[in-house]
């Protein structure tokens, strides 16, 4: 995609998905009508790709496994000035994306969501604790005004790509924030709702093993 083919002012919502056929229809239905939905599938064994297409999304395949590989493939494939990233599990509301897009239009380089659980018990304690430790480090060492690792985020496509390739697995959100701090980006955080996933199963923080793997990825980034 050359820069001259980028649709100015438009927004692509990049949705990394592994086995999200159950939750995807609700997520895609809630995306603002004028936004493009782009599902990046790597390694799904369910109908994720077919369901995504049936509900109007463009589907991009990615050979390399991992959340970060999927997100970066989606941003590269996006043909719009702005890119948004959110999960395909229904835990975040796409209706909150325009608020983040506005922050970028108003001058932020990166607008990120701070997840606020809508119910007790939906954010496992080990994931929440790890998140708090990392967010503290991001504030103290990197000077970023964040209280979460930016699971939902909006930026200009060119801004995102300017950092070059980042972590390919769950270290990606953190690598992006560390890169943003290093590049002197203006990062703005605002509250977003965090809901139970709408179906399917967690690949990351839903199990102690998943959290352990993610923590390993995180530490590799912060080292
Ligand atoms: N394409 C792709 N998506 C992934 C991968 N791992 C996780 N995801 C997606 O990333 C999002 C967050 O993962 P999730 O399982 O909800 O993690 P949790 O919220 O920590 O439990 C979901 O949309 C997943 O489908 C992966 O390896 N490839
Ligand atoms: Mg989730």
Automatic annotation (TrEMBL):
InterPro entries: Glyco_trans_2-like, Glycosyltransferase_2, Nucleotide-diphossugar_trans
Coiled-coil regions listed: none
Gene3D superfamilies per UniProt: Spore Coat Polysaccharide Biosynthesis Protein SpsA, Chain A
Annotated protein name in UniProt: Glycosyltransferase family 2 protein
A Pfam family of this chain: Glycos_transf_2
Glycosyltransferase 2-like domain boundaries: 12-147
Family of this protein: Belongs to the glycosyltransferase 2 family.
């Amino acid at each position: 995609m050359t820069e001259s083919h980028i649709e100015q002012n438009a927004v692509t919502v990049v949705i990394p998905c592994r086995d999200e056929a159950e939750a995807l229809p609700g997520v895609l239905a809630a995306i603002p009508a004028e936004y493009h939905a782009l599902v990046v599938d790597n390694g799904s064994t369910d109908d994720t790709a077919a369901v995504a297409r049936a509900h109007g999304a463009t589907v991009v395949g990615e050979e390399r496994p991992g959340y970060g590989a999927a997100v970066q493939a989606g941003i590269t494939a996006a043909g719009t000035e702005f890119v948004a990233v959110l999960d395909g599990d229904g835990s975040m509301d796409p209706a909150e994306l325009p608020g983040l897009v506005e922050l970028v239009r108003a001058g932020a380089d990166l607008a990120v969501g701070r997840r606020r659980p809508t119910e007790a018990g939906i954010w496992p304690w080990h994931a929440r604790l790890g998140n708090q430790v990392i967010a503290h480090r991001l504030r103290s060492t990197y000077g970023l005004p964040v209280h979460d690792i930016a699971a939902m985020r909006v930026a200009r496509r060119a801004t995102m790509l300017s950092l070059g390739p980042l972590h390919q697995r769950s270290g990606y959100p953190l690598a992006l924030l560390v890169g943003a701090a290093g590049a002197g980006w203006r990062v703005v955080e605002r509250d977003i709702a965090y809901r139970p996933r709408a179906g399917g199963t967690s690949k990351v923080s839903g199990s102690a093993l998943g959290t352990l793997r993610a923590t390993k990825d995180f530490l590799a980034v912060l080292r």
